[in-house]
Amino acid sequence: MQTLTNATILTVDEQDHFYPDGRIWIENGRIAAVGPAETLPERGEVVDLGGGLVLPGLINTHTHSHSSLFRNQADDLALMDWLKKAMWPMEKFLSPERAYAATALSCLEYLRGGITTYADQFYYADTIAEAARRSGLRCFLAATVFTDPSPETADTFGAAEAFVERWKGREEETRVYPCIGPHAPYSVSGELFQKVTELSEKYDLLVHTHISETEDENAQLRTSTGLSPTQWLERLGVFERPVLAAHSIHLGDTDLDIYQKHGVHVTYNPVSNMKLASGAAPVAQLLTAGVNVALGTDGMSSNDNHSMFEEMKLAALLARVTSLDPLALRDDTVLKMATVNGARAQGRHAGVMAAGYQADLILVDLRAPNLQPCHDVKSNLIYAANASNVCMNMARGTIIYENGNFLTLDLDEILREVERYAVPKLFS
User: Fold this and answer.
1) Residue 217: exposed, middle, or buried by beta-carbon count in 10 A (0-12, 13-18, 19+)?
2) Other beta carbons within 10 Å of 44
3) Rg (CA), the chain
4) What would the pLDDT profile of 184-206 be if each residue is shown by its tens digit?
5) Partners of residue 46 on adjacent β-strands
6) What is the pTM of this model?
7) 195-243 pLDDT tens trace
8) What's the order of all strands across the beta sheet hosting 176-182?
9) What is the Cβ-side half-sphere exposure of residue 414, based on CA atoms within 13 angstroms?
C-alpha cells in the first residue's frame, strides 16, 4: 500500500470530484481510494507531493513517434506537397535503428510532458514497440498499411499482420497494444481496406487511420467513387470495427451521421492541422452529435513538439475562433478530451482517478510562476500550463519520470543515438 498525500486532486471522473487537500491510496498498481485527506488516513509508504496537482495521465491519441527525426525539416507546405515532396522522400532514410532512436526520443518527451498513454501509427512497428516497452508508457501501436511499398517493406499488410501475431496477447507484460493502421483512403485501396477490416475482426484490433484531413483528398475520392471518404469506408464495412479517425476536418452532415451511427472515435490534432493549413475540425458539431473526440499531437514533422498542454489550449481557442462562440469548447470538455475521451477511443475504462482504475497519473507543480496565482485549476491547466510544469509521471503505480530524471530510459544514450541517426536536412 502507498499513500500519496499533500496534493490537490482533479479526478476527471463522472462526478468531476475535486479535492483541494486530497489523498490517494495505491495498491498493486491500482487506485484503491481517492478523496479528502481527512477521510483517508496514511497507510503504508507515504509520499508527500508538496502541494502539487494530481490528475490522470494525459492520453495522446494520434502520433508518429519516430517522425521526431524530421523535426523542423519541412515547414510552409500543405499536406500533399508536404507528404510527396518532403516526408515520403525523407522516410526512405528510415531503418530499424533510426526508428528506435527517434521513438525513444519521443518517449522522453511523452514522459516529461505528462503523457502516460499514446496511440502510434508508423512503419517498423516492432522497433517502436520495443522502445515503448522499455519506456514504461502504454502504447496503442498500429503498424501502417499502404497499397504502395513503404521504406520498410513492399508488403505492408504482411508486415502488419506479422507484428500483430508477435505482440498480441502480451499487453499486460509489455504495455504495447497492437492495432492496425491503414494510412488513409487516398493511399490504401478498397480491397486492402477490406483485408484490414478482416484482420481487425480476427484479432479484435482497433483500426487507426486518417480521414478527411484536407479538401483535396475529399475531392480526389469523390472524383473516383462519387463518395466522401467516410461514405466510402462505410460502404467497405470498415466502420463495423472500432475506428480511431485522425483529423476528420472536412466532414459533411452525412459524414457526421455515419460517425455517430457507428461510434467512430475522432482524434483532434489542432496544432498539426494549423501548421499544414488543413483546416479546423468541426469539434462542437461532433460533440453535439454524440461522437467521442480525443486529442493528439500528430507527428513531429507537422507539429515540432509532443505537448498535450499546447493541444488543449489550441483546441479550445481554435474551436472558439472558427465558431465565434466562446462556449464552443468548455474547459471541462477539453480536459476530458485529453484524458478519459482518449481512453474511450482506445476501448479502455481509464483516464480518470477513481477506485479500481490503474494508477496512471501525473503531478503538476502549482508553484511554478506561470501557474500563480491559481484561481481556477482547470483554466490554469488548459491556458497557462506547459509540459515543463509536470514534475512526476506514474504508470501503474510506478514512478517513471520525476523532477527531470528519466527512470526507465537513458537520456544521454538516446541523445547520442539521435545525433548518430539524424536524417540529413533535405529541405529549407
Assistant:
1) buried
2) 12
3) 21
4) 999 999 999 999 999 999 999 99
5) 3
6) 0.96
7) 999 999 999 999 999 999 999 999 999 999 999 999 999 999 999 999 9
8) 58-63, 115-122, 138-145, 176-182, 207-211, 243-247, 265-268, 293-295
9) 22
